[in-house]
Specification:
- The structure is a homodimer.
- The first copy, chain A, is an alpha/beta fold.
- Chain A folds into 2 domains: 62 residues, Ribosomal Protein L25, Chain P; 150 residues, 3-Layer(aba) Sandwich (Alpha/beta knot), CATH 3.40.1280.
- The first copy, chain A, is built from 6 helices and 12 strands.
- In chain A, the strands form 2 sheets. Chain A has a 6-stranded mixed sheet with strand order 1-4-5-6-3-2.
- At the A-B interface, helix 2 and helix 6 of A face helix 2 and helix 6 of B.
- Chains A, B: It comes from Geotoga petraea.
- Chains A, B: It is found in: Cytoplasm.
- Chains A, B: Pfam families: Methyltrans_RNA, PUA_4.
Chain lengths: 227, 227
């Protein structure tokens, strides 16, 4: 499995912060050695180590290659705030399954209230490094009621359209809306009904919330030959 | 999400061990109350609590219903010993995605050597309870070299047949062979080649080992309309 260094690009250099610098030392890289780096901008960088300090290190860019793979249709995952281990799992798998963006909302039944994007971005970057992908997905907090009906599939038990048909009908873009782990409130379900959202269920079999999300992302990738 | 009690069936009674008895007390069930129970035999039991002791409790069976759902094709997951958190995750998701059996082998690159089935069975039972399924999948340790070519798909990067075609061609039964997390050894790969195993890759995108497994199980369920 590849492991890329993740840093900040400044002109023709990439700056690694403390944690990445430690990793550089752990794998015994010295000044003059070559390493692969990503910065989240869609490019793979081949670089040469030119400085290793206590708190950071500096890589000089030798070669720049654009990621060849385009992941299409575009997937936007919208996720209700849930227990951290489950959130972490879904976001990790969503990045591996190459979603283009992730939004998180506080549902009425959410028993968590995350305020900082940092811990989410840390998981995203860790997964990009380990699975060799150079483009960082967008991440933000949203209000559930700002979600538009168009191109959105809500995952819930009380479906109103067929899962398979819905997955096969996806065109250029899809929003997958799920959770939180404790489910949607009565008001939230009414919002979906009043606004005629497409509601799908991955099957009669009871799945945990995170499994339903990973299952759905997997099937979209398979049907659309996306990976 | 349902939560069933898991116990041992003895005639028309179900015996709950200590941990399940504690759970019974936590949710404040008393003698005379009704609870739902499973024993792994394929039936859902409606029961009445007749004894609550320190170390166990006894439920009397009131009604017995067979699980209506048959999961077909049958899936047998064969998994290389890997880090525990990854093993745990795959087995949990495999049970949710209703595999009929799980086998675990020690690959040459496995850095773990599990000897006891107990910790595996504990995860399996926990997942059955939480996702309401009454039939316990088989679990055992196997030798990789005892795997037969017939009906087996090996998940690896160096595929020799098309993933989509392979998934669509599955008939009554399939063995999904994967891992360990550090990959197959040279000898193991030669064994697959010499014996002409079908080797598939879920895509060009690099996935972690557990993600490839969950992705593959998801696609089989979707294509075969299995859940």
């Amino acid at each position: 499995m590849p492991n890329f260094f993740f840093g900040d690009k400044k002109d023709d250099k990439i700056i690694l912060e403390k944690e990445e610098t430690t990793h550089l030392k752990v794998i015994k890289k010295n000044i003059g050695d070559y390493v692969e780096a990503i910065t989240g901008d869609g490019y793979f960088y081949r670089t040469k180590v030119i400085e290793i300090n206590k708190k950071n290190s500096i890589l000089s860019i030798v070669e720049k290659n654009k990621s060849k793979k385009e992941y299409f249709p575009k997937i936007h995952l919208i996720l209700g705030m849930s227990k951290w281990d489950r959130m972490r799992l879904i976001i990790e798998k969503a990045v591996e399954l190459r979603v283009q963006s992730v939004s998180v909302f506080k549902g009425q039944k959410s028993n968590q209230n995350y305020k900082s994007v940092e811990k989410f971005e840390k998981i995203i970057i860790e997964t990009l490094k380990q699975t060799g992908f150079p483009k960082i997905p967008n991440f933000n907090f949203v209000d559930l009621y700002d979600t538009k009906k168009k191109n959105t599939l809500v995952l819930d038990f009380e479906q109103n359209i067929d899962f398979k048909t819905a997955i096969e009908s996806i065109k250029d873009q899809v929003n997958i809306l799920i959770g939180p782990d404790l489910g949607f409130s009565k008001n939230e379900k009414e919002f979906f009904k009043e606004n005629k959202f497409d509601i799908v269920s991955p099957g009669d079999t009871i799945m945990r919330f995170e499994t339903a999300a990973i299952y759905t992302l997997s099937t979209i990738n398979f049907i659309k030959n996306r990976l």
